[in-house]
Amino acid sequence: MKDLLSIAALSIKDIEQIFQLARKLKNGYLPNFAGITSAYSFEANSLRTRATFLKAMARLEITAIELPNLLKTNEDKTHLAGYLDQWMNLYIIRESNHEILEMFAGASKRPVVNAMSSQEHPCEVLSDAFFLSEHFGKLEQLKVCLVGPATNVLQSWREFCELLQIKYVQVCPQPEKAHTEKHIVHSLAEGIQGADVILTDHWPKGSFELEYQVTLDKLQFAAPHALVIPCPPFDTRQEIHADVIASPYFAGYKQKRDLYTVHQAILVNLLT
Length: 272
Known about the structure:
Blueprint: H1 12-26, E1 37-42, H2 48-59, E2 63-66, H3 77-84, E3 90-94, H4 98-107, E4 112-114, H5 122-136, E5 143-147, H6 152-164, E6 167-171, E7 184-185, H7 188-192, E8 197-200, E9 227-230, H8 242-245, H9 258-271
Helix pairs in contact: 1-9, 2-9, 3-4, 5-6, 5-9
């Protein structure tokens, strides 16, 4: 793969390679990319993704140069890439406008990583999926429940499940015209039934409905070993109740530890 813009653009082989690299990196593998330069640009507030990508580049000895608001310029993206490609080997970009991100990646001869857009959050999903593969083993054996509307995180999860043929269901309100969507249910209890993994994301402003809050009483319908993975930053007054965070269902902060490892793996994969 040249770029990492969306899960749908990956192959199963791409994902397997990233996971294999992540395991090697956890076990001491350390390639050296001294002389490689990466530009990074993080729109708005980014904590975990920014911190782990910067730490990953430092470990791999990649020179990291911040170019704030890289794609906010009105400059033609072909010209922008034409100039910057002469000095950069890689770009890591958080840009809400996914179409502009795709335009820049199409113009650039260098790898471009989507560190989050309005449509996709592939790095986050690959990290969570890697954690789940380490915890459960084969992902294809799981039932995944996505709780909430089609945010960037849940959209990337849908694409991941469809690519790997993982059984999944999404629980959310649904427009009348889409009632035939086979993966959509309206009842949280129905969606959680037998689920091994329950994933949440923060709802768009003003759209949350309390009946969709993940609570301990609703988790009684999940598999006994089920894990709940809320996408941080999460709101315990909305998508997930505080009691769940304090329970064994919560995957814990350690679940995000692999964000650092998977970000390294993504960079190594793209650069080699």
